[in-house]
Design brief:
binds CU-O-CU linkage; Immunoglobulin-like; 5 helices; globular; 3 domains; mainly beta; binds copper (II) ion; 452 residues
Length: 452
């Protein structure tokens, strides 16, 4: 449960000020010349969903499906989303990874939650190409677990050409014996976060994906699970990593697996395969320090390779230029401590800088931020910064394998990550938190202002 700390803050921040910030952001959201306003309506509602064939589950989702509709647009377009809440409780929608004005970020820091029966309009220009997603940012261990999430794809005019562009939204749910989603648990679940035993791709249990032989596809993978780390593999075959949270990386990177902590995205170039092959899309065993561990690969989907089809895919050697934010030695200007303790409310209580719902120092527009995110706990945490991309400078003291733009990064148990980011001119209330939903709910989050 996103608790009352947020609300107190939202209430104490000047209501007129936030209304004015919203109105200004709304008016400033204009499409680039030659671009359009992509208007969509999404309704958060309750409905019956078949996660498992033959079993209906009461789900919460957008427009009667899990995931909600995949929103697609081009850089320079304006996305205008009219959200209507048909749920029995309030909700807000967060646009994960998008560099949009604070007033449109969809958190309780910047808006009043949208009550049952109410409507709210989000409107913003899309500044970056990439694989993003949207999800409820209210009572997430219930609302996101029941299905309130969807993919958001932004394309640039000059993207590399593939034979297909496929989005795979991964999730897992824990169903009770009547096929209903279990309510949030305590103790082990508050420590580990929930890893459901029913694994889903695009809202279906272990589906079959058909692919033509000889073709190369672009897969956009989103990990929408509450707590599960996915070590993604396609039958152990080599593929190329071409993008991360903030779009394309500078050059393709060969790999046979890619780690996606909760909320993370990866884009990979997959194939070509031979006709008649069957490949298992799996998560490989990965130890994140949780009580429950995985010793065997677990299936997410199966790829069936059909008859050959001609390929027009061309993967260039260079995908785009990424300027490093930092060259040479730097002194970090903030340490973010991820810690934990024991408490009565959640069992295990995760915190930031020894505080639940920490109030962090503001940052100033135009001042480079170099942060050491230090994990003082025995479990991994996916650290997520709202609204801004960062570059990873060091992972446990070593330079990362490649330069990229990120909004979510894994901080391993007792490890640390050094990140750099530049607050551009989008003042307002922002936050950073662990994206394991149970940890976030327990208070492993901080909010701060970007000020001019
Ligand atoms: Cu995707 Cu504050 O989260
Ligand atoms: Cu965590």
């Amino acid at each position: 449960m996103t608790d009352h700390h947020h609300q107190t803050d939202a209430a104490s921040s000047n209501k007129e000020e936030s209304a004015a910030a919203y109105a200004a952001a709304y008016a400033a959201a204009q499409p680039d010349p030659g671009h359009r306003v992509v208007a969509v309506e999404i309704e958060a509602c309750e409905f019956d969903w078949e996660f498992v064939p033959g079993v209906t589950t009461r789900a919460w989702g957008f427009n009667g499906s899990v995931p909600g509709p995949t929103l697609e647009a081009t850089v320079g377009d304006v996305l205008e989303i009219r959200l209507t809440n048909r749920l029995p409780e309030p909700t807000v929608v967060h646009w994960h990874g998008l560099r949009i004005p604070a007033a449109m970020d969809g958190t309780e820091m910047v808006q009043r939650p949208v009550g049952p029966g109410e409507t709210f309009i989000y409107r913003f220009r899309l500044p970056d190409a990439g694989t993003f997603w949207y999800h409820s940012h209210f009572n997430e261990t219930v609302q996101m677990e029941r299905g309130l999430y969807g993919a958001l794809i932004v394309r640039a005019p000059d993207e590399p050409v593939f034979d297909a562009d496929r989005t795979l939204v991964l999730d897992d749910v824990e169903l009770d014996k009547n096929g209903q989603i279990k309510p949030p648990g305590w103790w082990i679940e508050s420590h580990d976060g929930r890893e459901g035993s029913t694994r889903l791709v695009n809202g279906r249990q272990e589906p079959e994906i058909r692919m033509a032989a000889g073709q190369v596809e672009r897969w956009r993978i989103v990990n929408a699970a509450s707590a599960r780390y996915v070590l993604f593999s396609v039958g152990g075959r080599p593929f190329k990593i071409i993008g991360t949270d903030g779009g394309l990386i500078s050059a393709p990177v060969a790999a046979t697996r890619v780690l996606l902590p909760p909320a993370d995205r990866a884009e990979i170039a997959v194939g070509p395969f031979a006709a008649g092959e069957t490949l298992r899309i799996e998560t490989l065993p990965f130890n994140r320090g949780s009580f429950k561990s995985h010793r065997k690969p677990e299936l997410f989907a199966t790829v069936q390779v059909g008859a050959a089809a001609p390929s027009r895919a061309r993967l260039p050697d260079r995908l785009r230029e990424i300027e490093p934010l930092v060259t040479g030695p730097v002194t970090p200007n903030r340490e973010v401590r991820l810690g934990f303790g024991l408490g009565l409310k959640h069992g295990v209580e995760f915190n930031i800088d020894h505080e639940q719902h920490h109030h962090a120092e503001p940052v100033r527009v135009g001042e480079l931020q170099v942060w050491d995110v230090v994990n003082r706990s025995p479990v991994h945490h996916p650290f997520h910064l709202h609204g801004f991309f960062f570059q990873v400078l060091e992972l446990n003291g070593k330079a990362p394998e490649f330069l990229s733009w990120e909004d979510t990064v894994n901080v391993s148990a007792f490890g640390s990550v050094r990140i750099a980011w530049m607050p551009d001119d989008r003042p307002g209330g922002w936050m950073y938190h662990c994206h394991i939903l149970e940890h976030h709910a327990a208070g492993m989050m901080a909010h701060f202002d970007v000020v001019r």
